[in-house]
Amino acid sequence: MEGMKFEKLSSRQDAALAGLIRKNLEANRLDIPGTAYFDESLDHLSGYYGAEPEKRVYYVLLDEEGRLAGGVGIAELDAFPDCAELQKLYLDDRVKGRGLGYRMMEQAERAAGKLGYRRIYLETHDNLKAAIHLYERCGYKEIEKPAAAVHGSMNRFFLKELK
Questions:
Q1: 5-161 is a CATH 2.60.40.10 domain
Q2: What Cα–Cα distance (Å) separates residue 95 from each residue in 26, 62, 68, 116, 135?
Q3: Which H or E run contains 18?
Q4: Could you tell me if 125 and 151 are in contact, meaning their C-beta atoms sit under 8 angstroms apart?
Q5: For the CA atoms of 48, 141, 144, 122, what is the dihedral angle to 10 degrees?
Q6: How many helices (H) and strands (E) does the chain have?
Q7: What is the DSSP-derived secondary structure letter of residue 35?
Q8: Would you give per-residue pLDDT tens digits along the chain (163 residues)?
Q9: Within 10 A of 21 (CB to CB), how many other CB atoms are there?
Q10: What is the CA radius of gyration of the chain?
Q11: pTM for the full model?
Q12: Distance of CA 54 to CAs 60, 61, 84, 88, 104, Å?
């Protein structure tokens, strides 16, 4: 993580972030309807997260040269009381395998706590084995699919109580 830093997403990073997310989904054969690949706001995530800063935030991870290395978001979820949803956690291939996913999870959980959330929900897919391993190692417990699940193609659902 040395030399890398988090900052809030800005509009100048929207295109690079959308590209990173699509590339990751394509690599995992998840460039299909019912995934983030087709989210209406994907090309303008700074507008989505910036519209309600008291409920949502998205952080980008920048490498030593200021290039986008990853990102992770938090947004309100009404399915459970005082709950945020972990959204769009992705890393660039060039930085994977360095433990940065854990740093991104910590950043997201800190942000959720600052926004007043007491739990975090996430949805993922069997194809994302490394992500599932990360979530389980970070203390997320698998739950049944909630009625409020947004992405219809996702088939794994997790929840964590924050301390």
A1: no
A2: 18, 11, 10, 31, 18
A3: helix 14-27
A4: no
A5: 10
A6: 4, 7
A7: S
A8: 578 999 999 999 999 999 999 999 999 998 988 888 988 899 999 999 999 999 999 999 999 999 999 999 999 998 899 999 999 999 999 999 999 999 999 999 999 999 999 999 999 999 999 999 999 999 999 999 988 777 678 899 999 999 8
A9: 21
A10: 15
A11: 0.92
A12: 18, 21, 12, 19, 20
Cβ atoms of 99 and 137 within 8 Å: the answer is no
Six token digits for residue 76? 């309100």
Tokens found for residue 62:
């920048």
Q: How far apart are CA 163 and CA 118, in angstroms?
A: 7
The domain locations on the chain are 5-161
Q: What is the pLDDT of residue 151?
A: 67
| Token output for 35 | 């995934």
Residues in the chain: 163
Q: 């700074």: which residue's tokens? A: 46
pLDDT score recorded for residue 1: 59
CB-based burial label for 160 (10 Å; 0-12, 13-18, 19+): buried
